[in-house]
Amino acid sequence: MFSEAWHQMRGVQGVFLEWGSALEWNVVFTFVLCVMILSCIGLSRLIYRGRQTEGNALWLHLLGLCIFPLFLLPFANFTIFEYSKQERFCASCHPSMDPYVNDMTGADGTSLAATHYQDRFAPGEECYTCHANYGVHGTFTAKVLGLNDAWRELTGTYTEPIKMRQPFPNVLCLKCHNGARKFMKEDSHTDPGGVVAKDLLTDKTKCSECHVPGHLHPERAKTALNAG
Amino acid sequence: MASIGNLFRGDWPARLLGAAQLLIGLVAALGIATVVTLNPYLLLGFGAVQALIVLGIILFVIVAMLAQRGMVLEEFDAGQIIFSEGDPGRHVYVVKSGTLEVLAGRPDGSAEVVDRLGPGDHFGDVALLRRNLPHRFTVRTVTDAHIFRISPGALVQLYANLPELREYFRQKEEPHLRRLAALRKGPVPGHLPKSPGDPKPPPPASPR
After folding, report:
1. Euclidean distance between CA atoms B55 and B189, whole angstroms
2. Domain residue extents for chain A
3. Among B161, B143, B165, which residue's Cα sits nearest to residue B96?
4. Which residues of chain A are within 8 Å of residue B23 when distances are taken between CB atoms?
5. Which residues 145-184 of B are in CB contact (within 8 Å) with A?
6. Residue-level pLDDT at B37
7. β-strand partners of B103
8. ipTM value for the complex
């Protein structure tokens, strides 16, 4: 009976499906470490009043100001980097991202983003998966550009409708589809010899020329600057 | 604001320690706010201040190194206990400024002021120089006080190289132990003749 109720709950509340991921555990560890650090500092101020080595003060300081913070660094950074890949993080930039996110998550969406979202290709990380290039270089570039976007959102220095900095490169599609059986079966994707078409690799032919656009969203002409 | 000001009282190591606590405490507080709310701006801010953790750790390491110095000046508020009866002896203290009182516990649980200490007085040497002997008094500040805390290593060096200092400690200890024996109505456990003393004997006249 318990198992049945548990599975029902998992099915109804999708959040349970995510619990247990590295991100969730890191959020918990980050929270616990922060609480322990503040507790050590509070105890030090209350009991030892800033003295450095009296009694067990040095051990308390060693824990609160050295060991726990050293553990906090990797856990916190992992939390930050992983959470910033989440679709909910990208969607938190209101209202500039709303049209794109709503288009993607809408049940009746027909854009490529919506199709990928509905097919659960990268659950929770849809934006990052399609907009960040492969490897560490891609991640780093995405983070730097994301910081720039966040700054513009925070200061309101962006113009609607927001646009991509450069046309969506085919490599972002090919990093997943290149070599996939269904993709390679399509003649227009390959050159004689069964290799990926050079025109696709060099962006001479864009994916969006044959496929529906990545996003189908209402145009928004109003600018944040002008609105102010 | 006063409590933040308290972080930066005392000598330089104490101030550095306060700075390290402030930096790392701020990051920890921001971390809690971040993971509780998962607000994107808090998250980015949390990421931006990670460097403060490194800075705080560096400050703490400096403090830990400075704490190994032979002598550290510490600041105490009025009413603070320097050490309690029964605590293990770790340091010798020399009063720079302020007034302290020496309390002896009675069997009924009350405490009696048996001495008052002022600038130039020292205490804590008996428990430190005789191994495994805990403090037999509680020392508490009466007013705000600045007290030099001398490390065991530094004291042993002085004690071994300065015969005058050894003689000084002996002279101070004898009357003190006699008074302690009278107070406790019996021999003092661990008392050895001709050994350095704890707090100096109480003056017959009124306290300083």
Report:
1. 48
2. 2-83, 94-168+206-227
3. B143
4. none
5. none
6. 86
7. B113, B138
8. 0.72
